[in-house]
């Protein structure tokens, strides 16, 4: 558990390092190509966000408590126009606790807002499922539950521009700036779906399908130099774009001795790994 928690923190640190590579501080507005890049990034962010929320299609008969940690990865495309030089996976992580009785079960998952230098990241989510297996008139049918859930993640990245170059006179002039520019992504998703699982001796296999309705708000701030004769001043600005992230999630996975893994598609590939126990 301790090792997986440390891995989760390392995943978050890489999320922050990745976000600081997002280069949009020179754009007051985004072109269609740049919007496509951010769209892919936010789809990937939400792909990993809801991984491993459910790994068991059954509901507790009497009483069940569960605790675990998870890390998710969602794919994004190359987008050099916004500083993303190659395709990859954007990570997220957190802890999850669950409580259930009489066929129903709920969970709450979160990552308290953590700060890494000039960046911060935090997330939260909750969900509810109900066991439908007894309503399915098929002998030996896998344990099956319907579920709904909500998740959100907030990541903010800042960097300091120390200087810029001006070539308007035919020769390069270095202008000291020392101004901070920032980008903040607020992403949320609501989902509803079905999960089925089957126990094979010591291994549980599961599959799930869900429709997820999500969106992401991108706020960013920058500046532009204004030349006044031989001197410069700076005009600051703030911009905003909203991106729709709705889509189908189809995933399969397994659980063995508390170790859980899942792969699937959700507007691109996603994967999740974690560890948890229940009693």
Characterise the protein shown here.
By secondary structure, this protein is mainly β. It contains 2 helices and 11 strands, in the order ααβββββββββββ. β3 and β4 (119-131) form a beta hairpin.
Question: Gist?
Answer:
This protein is mainly beta and 279 residues long. The chain is 13% helix and 62% strand. A 10-stranded antiparallel β-barrel has the order 1-2-3-4-5-6-7-9-10-11.
C-alpha Rg, in Å? 22 Å
Series of secondary-structure elements, N-terminal to C-terminal = HHEEEEEEEEEEE
Give the percentage of residues in beta strands. Answer: over 45%
Alpha carbon gap, first and last residue: 16 Å
Largest sheet: 10 strands, antiparallel, barrel
Low-confidence stretches: 1-20
Global geometry: elongated
Share of helix, binned: 10-25%
Return the structural class: mainly beta
Supply the number of helical segments: 2
| Order of strands in the sheet with most strands | 1-2-3-4-5-6-7-9-10-11
Oligomer category? single chain
Task: Say how many strands there are.
Answer: 11
Mean pLDDT comes to 85
Name some characteristics of this structure.
ten-stranded antiparallel β-barrel; mainly beta; 13% helix; 279 residues
Helix and strand arrangement:
Layout: H1 2-19, H2 32-49, E1 64-76, E2 88-101, E3 104-116, E4 119-131, E5 143-166, E6 173-200, E7 203-228, E8 231-244, E9 247-256, E10 259-265, E11 269-278
Antiparallel strand pairs: 1-2, 1-11, 2-3, 3-4, 4-5, 5-6, 6-7, 7-8, 7-9, 9-10, 10-11
